[in-house]
Automatic annotation (TrEMBL):
The keyword Signal applies. Residues 1-22 form the signal peptide. InterPro entries: 6-blade_b-propeller_TolB-like, ConA-like_dom_sf, DUF6797. It holds the Pfam family DUF6797. Keywords: Signal. This is DUF6797 domain-containing protein. It comes from the Bacteria. The keyword Signal applies. Residues 289-386 form the DUF6797 domain. The lineage of its organism: Bacteria, Pseudomonadati, Planctomycetota, Phycisphaerae, Tepidisphaerales. Residues 338-360 are annotated as: Disordered.
Length: 980
């Protein structure tokens, strides 16, 4: 069998669920079996902790030959936190490459290419790199970060993307730790997990090559299955999402609809459009144009290939680029100027980012007419509607821009294209720009004229008392194309002279357009089976759809008739009908398309508001045909950057009409904050600061915004907060937005250890009395654990007299198909509906899912309240308890520990009694007393005091013979007066 056929067979075996180390890829290792790499390599899901300092990476490797051998690499090379362990070409010396640092490589003097097993260690504390070989220090060097870019990607064993095939190499045990370990002692046995292990692979457990590690409570999976991949085809695991070949993703296969919203850049020139709407023009959809909704300009036009979506995280790791070099473009500057400043093209924005001041221009939205798009905006208070098209003459493309401009008392001007340093001339009414590249041709028709000023072609419009319509034609090509352009120009001039009376285009646009996706897709849901109080039903999504729409759900809500609207981060909004008890006939309609990674949705007065990175969009269906006709810009004041991780998420609304959402951390005024939008959509303000990489909000019945963030640097464990103060700090110091760094992480109502929730979603409150738990009960979605938690708050007075809320959580006995992030109760049936996706590390396995948590009517047998007093803890349950076990102090056990709030990624568990000792403390339960209500127990405890994390284990019987056996995790900020 040839190497190519062998690799193909290996890949087939992997996807068939067979052992990935068959057919000679599993060889005798230092301890047990080892992975032999060459035509194949192994890949594990992205985990940001692998790039957090301090870090120790240990592995055993055997290298035969002086070819450069990649041993282990983390993230792509264009990430500032990328590192790769390798052997140097020709010398075989052990080295580490770090392209985001200076120097970019640290190379030892130790040759390890002798076909012997070597114990190799890489350590980095953020300032100094150290390499060890067989227990001896082989290299040490200070380094300094230089590159600002961040990108995500998998951990690769025996491979680094874009590097040629290497020599004969085998890799055995690999361990990654979040501390600087003693590397001077060569292990005599396989690596073991401990509390500091964040990744561990042995390569001798078939496709289940998992190791267990983690903190207190129970073991949580650490590391990932080391899946085998094929080098020759460039198959790369994109961070745990799905397989990607080259730059092709399932998102790339989509029919996006008439437009695609994103940040986009020209691959060969510095011209990034941060809020871009890119159109596919012509019958063959082979010509493209991008409109900048911030600067109100046509930023670029091109042909050939539409857009290139990055491979990482199936397209979510960074912004796309144009599919080819721009034929036409305009400068990164305001697209319009008016009045006395009609020749002023300077950028008035203080940071050269974000929207223009409303006096200069304001984007209002876009209208759809079939496959055509018209942009609506205001320039100095004057309404403008702009449409774009293309005409093809013997493969020569002429782009057309048509403007309808409302009456204006001032002169107006707009840049239609620009060629820096070009020589300009005018010939037969055509402006021609000549430079080293292709020439540019432009002409205008109607009540406007073109001027060329320093390589910039400007359309001038004089003051006018009635609406005017102006058309501009643009093309790029060599001088031989000028004759074709002249011919088209002549025809258009004659058409303009014979044009009938003006007909307002807005009247037509507001009538709506025929549906593009009229045929509903029918699916059959699945009812979950459960012996407990809740069952999880699945509203089956139409994953196999005519448009290859890649369904990864980021938010949902319900119309007054009970139908649901649900958004996908791939850009769609769908409407789901037929939701009933049996879910036998669900009807799915594609309602909107092309949105910018929507991760939040709210319905108000039966209008859909959807949150994208660029704006909150209000969707209008003018003709009630089931599809959006107008995508209104409700608010687009949020600043967008190229940071792939600066997601915006979770749209909530209070009773006054204010909207709230999260923006993850980037270096902008809005990065790392909870943002608030006024009811009229005109004002954006910072509601809270200190957000790291949060993914969820909630809105309590009292109108208080809740929030949850995930473990990381300055977030020692996942936390839930209630935002009760303006600009409240939520713990993440780099995004505090203060001149002086905070000295306290604030008081979340509850901290949560990793085994309970390692990646948080949003919160939701029970509505009505049809779900088992009382109305007003707080719930929390866990994206990472793919499960649901009940939150049990206690509000009391702190020592300083202020009011403080603390809470306990317990994990409901439920599991979901994907990482759930959003929850809404449907008024029509009183049941909880959740949605989510799989794009980061999660216990969920589906790319996206929409599911219902249905109350079965059976007894709950669950905790329902926790109250902490000076002399003990009161636990309340849903059902009457058996007095014998309830009164037995042995039915309860309590542990407690603190975290350390610091720049380190996460925190160890630290003793409360001995703060410098790692670990936890046992809390003695002196007695347990069943209270008169028959459902509450008071645990008498001496010496209670504030603590960040407590675990209360319960094992008691109910009067009906059922057992309640669960763990409750709580945080104590203050103690209520002595209890029963």
């Amino acid at each position: 069998m040839t190497a190519r056929l062998l690799a193909a067979a290996l890949i087939a075996a992997v996807f068939a669920g067979l052992s990935p180390f068959a057919a000679g890829q599993s060889v005798e290792g230092k301890f047990g079996r080892a992975l032999k790499v060459g035509p194949v390599f192994a890949s594990a899901d992205h985990n940001p902790i692998y790039a957090v300092n301090p870090v120790t990476v240990e592995l055993w490797a055997r290298v035969n030959g002086r070819d450069s051998s990649i041993l282990l690499s983390n993230e792509p090379r264009n990430s500032k936190t990328h590192w790769e362990l390798y052997t140097e070409q020709e010398t075989g010396r052990f080295a580490v490459g770090m392209p985001g640092y200076n120097p970019k490589s640290v190379i030892s003097q130790t040759d390890i290419s002798d076909d012997q097993w070597h114990y190799l260690v890489y350590q980095f504390d953020g300032k100094t790199v150290r390499l060890f070989v067989d227990g001896k220090l082989a290299a040490e060097a200070p380094v300094k970060m230089t590159a600002p870019h961040y990108n995500t990607g998998p951990l690769l064993f025996g491979y680094e993307v874009g590097v040629a095939a290497h020599g004969d190499t085998s890799i055995d045990d690999v361990r990654i730790s979040r501390v600087l370990r003693d590397a001077t002692k060569v292990p005599a046995a396989p690596f073991k997990r401990d509390a500091d292990t964040v990744g561990l692979w042995h390569f001798d457990e078939d496709e289940k090559a998992l190791a267990k590690a983690g903190g207190y409570g129970d073991d949580s999976a650490i590391g990932n299955i080391a899946r085998l991949k094929k080098r020759e085809e460039g198959v790369v695991d994109n961070g745990g999402f799905n397989n990607t070949v080259g730059n092709k993703t399932r998102w790339s296969d989509m029919d996006y609809g008439p437009f695609f919203s994103s940040t986009i850049s020209n691959p060969s020139k510095s011209n990034t459009t941060f809020k871009a709407v890119s159109l596919q023009l012509g019958k063959d959809r082979k010509h493209f144009i991008t409109f900048d909704t911030e600067l109100l300009r046509m930023s670029a036009a091109w042909d050939g290939s539409f857009i290139k979506i990055p491979a990482g995280r199936e397209g979510l790791s960074g912004p796309p680029t144009m599919g080819s070099t721009a034929l036409l473009q305009t400068p990164v500057a305001p697209g319009w100027a008016t009045g006395a400043n009609a020749d002023d093209w300077s950028d008035p924005r203080p940071q050269k980012s974000g929207s223009l001041p409303p006096s200069r221009g304001k984007y209002k939205g876009m209208f759809l007419q079939g496959e055509h798009v018209a942009f609506a905006y205001q320039v100095d208070g004057v309404d403008v509607v702009e449409a774009t098209g293309v005409q093809i003459d013997q493969e020569f493309a002429i782009f057309r821009r048509t403007y309808e401009i409302a009456p204006s008392p001032l002169p107006m001007a707009t840049t239609v294209c620009s060629v820096p340093d070009a020589k300009d001339r005018k010939e037969d009414g055509i402006v021609i720009l000549e430079s080293d590249g292709p020439s540019t041709f432009a002409s205008a028709y109607g009540e406007g004229s073109l001027q060329s000023i320093g390589g910039r072609v400007v359309l001038k419009v004089e003051p006018h008392a009635k609406p005017v319509v102006i058309e501009v034609m643009l093309a790029a090509g060599d001088t031989s194309k000028l004759a074709q352009f002249k011919a088209a120009h002549k025809i258009q001039t004659q058409r303009n002279q014979n044009r009938s009376a003006y007909q307002p285009v807005m009247d037509t646009l507001r009538k709506g357009c025929p549906p593009r996706y009229p045929q509903p897709l029918i699916t059959k849901g699945t009812l979950g089976k459960s012996d407990g109080p809740w069952a999880v039903d699945t509203l089956t999504a139409p994953d196999d759809n005519p448009w290859h729409s890649f369904l990864r759900f980021g938010g949902h809500d319900f119309f007054s008739n009970g139908d649901a609207a649900i958004c996908s981060v791939s850009g769609d909004v769908w409407v789901v009908s037929g939701i009933d008890d049996k879910l036998e006939k669900l009807s799915w309609r594609r309602f909107a398309t092309g949105l910018f990674q929507p991760l939040g949705l709210k319905i108000v007065d039966d209008k859909v508001y959807v949150l994208g990175r660029d704006q909150i969009t209000k969707l209008h269906d003018f003709n009630a045909d089931g599809e959006a006709d107008f995508y209104e810009n409700y608010n687009n004041d949020g600043i967008v950057t190229t940071n792939g991780h600066a997601y915006v998420a979770c749209l909530e609304r209070d009773a006054a009409g204010n909207f709230y959402y999260i923006k993850c951390g980037d270096r902008t005024p809005h990065g790392g904050t909870v943002l608030k939008v006024s009811p009229d959509g005109k004002t954006l303000s910072v509601h809270a600061t200190g957000v790291r990489n949060a993914n969820g909000l909630g809105m309590s019945p009292a109108g208080v915004v809740s929030f949850a963030d995930n473990q990381g640097d300055w977030v020692p464990a996942s936390r839930i907060d209630l935002i009760t103060q303006p600009r409240q700090f939520l713990g993440y110091t780099p995004m505090s937005k203060t001149d002086t760094p905070p000295t306290d992480p604030g008081k979340p109502i509850c901290w949560m250890p990793q085994n309970i929730d390692n990646s948080s979603g949003g919160q939701v409150w029970v509505q009505g009395n049809q779900w088992g738990l009382p109305a007003g009960t707080m719930l929390h979605t866990s994206y990472g654990a793919a499960t649901l938690l009940q939150v049990m708050p206690q509000t009391l007075k702190a020592a300083d007299g202020s009011e403080v809320t603390q809470a306990a959580v317990w994990k409901l006995p439920l599991a979901f198909s994907t990482g759930i992030m959003r929850g809404r109760f449907r008024p029509q049936d009183g049941q909880l509906y959740v949605s989510g996706l799989r794009g980061w590390q999660t216990a969920g396995t589906k790319d996206g899912a929409f599911q219902r948590v249905r109350y079965t009517g059976k007894p709950l047998h669950a905790p329902t309240a926790v109250a902490v007093h000076k002399n003990g803890i009161k636990l309340t349950f849903t059902d009457a308890l058996d007095p014998e076990t309830a009164n037995d102090a042995g039915s309860y056990s309590i542990l407690q520990w603190n975290y350390r709030w610091s720049a380190e990624y996460g925190s160890k568990h630290w003793s409360v009694k001995n703060p410098d000792a790692q670990g936890y403390d046992t809390v003695d339960v002196k007695s347990a007393k069943l209270l008169p209500d028959g459902r509450s127990v008071f645990l008498t405890i001496d010496g209670l005091k504030p603590v960040m994390q407590m675990r209360i284990s319960v094992n008691i019987d109910c009067k009906d013979g059922e057992t309640i056996k669960t763990d409750v995790y709580n945080t104590i900020h203050a103690l209520a007066p002595e209890g029963p």
